[in-house]
Amino acid sequence: MFSDIGGLEVVTLAIMAIVIFGPDKLPKLIQDAMGFIRKIRSFADSAKEDIRSELGPDFKDFDFEDLNPKTFVRKQLIGNGDDPLGFKELKDGLDLKSALNGEPAPAAAPAANLAKTAAGSPGAPLSPGERPPFDPDAT
């Protein structure tokens, strides 16, 4: 939450708080703020427990973090450790170092499937300047 505040900003805020509220009222103000935060946190925890108890035993391991859109999408795409969309295979096949050095990428097995014609039979390699066969179903 406050990860973007540096040490100098914290010191500045502390000095400003001492100047504005004074050293005699500052401990009471901090104590009241902490009490308020504890009440809000306990209210949120009790609301979560009420929701879990109302949902029943089917949702006993329901996690409220799953309602975060980023977490939801990540969990639906990647799953629970498995890789249904093949992201791991794609990541393993990507050689970033050779791509950055300008070296040609190694030929992969799926690239051989691109040489097949629309009928499914393997096509002959094209000579330079020759146009590929027209496929009316693909357009």
Automatic annotation (TrEMBL):
Entries under InterPro entries matching the protein: TatA/B/E, TatB
Q: Known HAMAP family for this protein?
A: TatB
Location comes to:
Cell membrane; Membrane
Q: Region Disordered: what ranges?
A: 105-139
Which gene holds the coding sequence for this protein? tatB
Which keywords belong to this entry? Cell membrane, Membrane, Protein transport, Translocation, Transmembrane, Transmembrane helix, Transport
Mainly resides where? membrane
- Note the NCBIfam families from the entry: PRK01371.1-4
Function description: Part of the twin-arginine translocation (Tat) system that transports large folded proteins containing a characteristic twin-arginine motif in their signal peptide across membranes. Together with TatC, TatB is part of a receptor directly interacting with Tat signal peptides. TatB may form an oligomeric binding site that transiently accommodates folded Tat precursor proteins before their translocation.
Protein family (similarity comment): Belongs to the TatB family.
Which segments show compositional bias classed as Low complexity?
Answer: 105-119
Its lineage reads:
Bacteria, Bacillati, Actinomycetota, Actinomycetes, Kitasatosporales
Q: What quaternary arrangement does the UniProt entry report?
A: The Tat system comprises two distinct complexes: a TatABC complex, containing multiple copies of TatA, TatB and TatC subunits, and a separate TatA complex, containing only TatA subunits. Substrates initially bind to the TatABC complex, which probably triggers association of the separate TatA complex to form the active translocon.
Question: What Pfam family is a match, any one?
Answer: TatA_B_E
Output this protein's name.
Sec-independent protein translocase protein TatB
Has the keyword Glycosyltransferase been applied to this entry? no
Show the Gene3D superfamilies listed in the entry. Answer: 1.20.5.3310
In what way does this protein cross or attach to the membrane? Single-pass membrane protein
